[in-house]
Amino acid sequence: MFHKEENNPFKYYDPRGLGCYKDLLVPTGLCIPTTDDGAWEHFPKHRWVYNKLEVALSQNLRCAPVGVEPKEFPVFMKPITNLYGAGLSSGLILSPEEYEKKKHLSGHFWMEFLQGEHLSHDLVVMNGEVVFNLAFRGEKLGQGMFDYWETVESAVSTDYVSSWVKKNLSDYTGTVNLETIDCKIIECHLRMGDIDRLGNSKLMQNIIDIYAGKKWTFQEKLSPCYLFALWGDYNIAYQIDKNIAEEIGKNLTCYQIDNPELYFQNPPGGVRVAITCSYDKEAAFQARYSLYESFSPPPRKPKNKY
């Protein structure tokens, strides 16, 4: 699903690899960035959004690069730019003594510690106007990991991110993924988040069309959707028989077995080895457990309830 082929319109992750999109029409020569490195290359004018310090400053959040000592604790420290994501080299700083041990981390910054609902927003933007917004709420496991994500409605957060996009990306057209905590933006990506996991061909075709300069026509009301993650430990190459995985996933909207070569793109707490996606919460939940039982060696045992 990740590739570097020059003639592939999706740069560098192809959602068609999920198996739920068979009839998408993609014009020849079109480029749709689907990873952060692809978006960085394709949108030079707007790549500043990958500077998390600038994103925080644009919202008047209390923040500064390492070297400027916080006056209040706790604060959250992370790299100013991190195209790999997954909370790499990030963490909570509780005291001046703890900050003293971390202040050598050049290229990092600190920001005020936000608490509250953690949402991931998938937006479709046309010349700075948000024409589609879908939010995913994450059920946290800790250390940057999430047990599952579910689509939700959040009018307050939706209004906030739409206003921020209109002000800061006024001439941008494409998809945007924004992560918020307590309605404050902590990350911005010029690509899709998990919207491709919904398996809705009309939605995906409309996304392709806006990159091709066409109008947005998608008006369908979407049912709640659920994404369950299966986690393992670092430095272990988990394996599963392809036929078994296909049998387990045949009744899902989509599923993904993660590539061990990309395990480094994971949060501090562990590595994601698979994800199951469905509009039927119980089906996605049970399929995750079936995958867990089929991996060798077994990854971490998932929760037995949600």
List the helices and strands and how they pair.
Elements: E1 10-11, E2 32-33, H1 36-42, H2 52-57, E3 63-65, E4 75-79, E5 91-93, H3 96-102, E6 108-112, E7 118-126, E8 129-142, E9 145-152, H4 155-168, E10 174-181, E11 184-189, H5 201-211, E12 226-232, H6 242-249, E13 254-257, E14 271-278, H7 281-294
Parallel strand pairs: 1-2
Antiparallel strand pairs: 3-6, 4-5, 4-6, 7-8, 7-10, 8-9, 9-12, 10-11, 12-14, 13-14
Describe this structure in words.
- The structure is a single chain.
- This protein is of the alpha+beta class.
- It folds into 3 domains: 136 residues, ATP-grasp fold, B domain (D-amino Acid Aminotransferase, Chain A, domain 1, 2-Layer Sandwich); 51 residues, no CATH class; 69 residues.
- An 8-stranded antiparallel sheet has the order 11-10-7-8-9-12-14-13. A 4-stranded antiparallel sheet has the order 3-6-4-5.
- Helix 6 packs antiparallel against helix 7.
- The protein is globular, with a radius of gyration of 19 Å.
**CATH homologous superfamily identity of the largest domain:** ATP-grasp fold, B domain
Helix content: 10-25%
Using only CA atoms, what is the Rg? 19 Å
The CATH class assignment of the largest domain is Alpha Beta
- Number of folding domains? 3
CATH topology tier name of the largest domain? D-amino Acid Aminotransferase, Chain A, domain 1
Which consecutive residue ranges, at least 5 long each, have pLDDT under 50?
A: none
Strand order of the largest sheet: 11-10-7-8-9-12-14-13
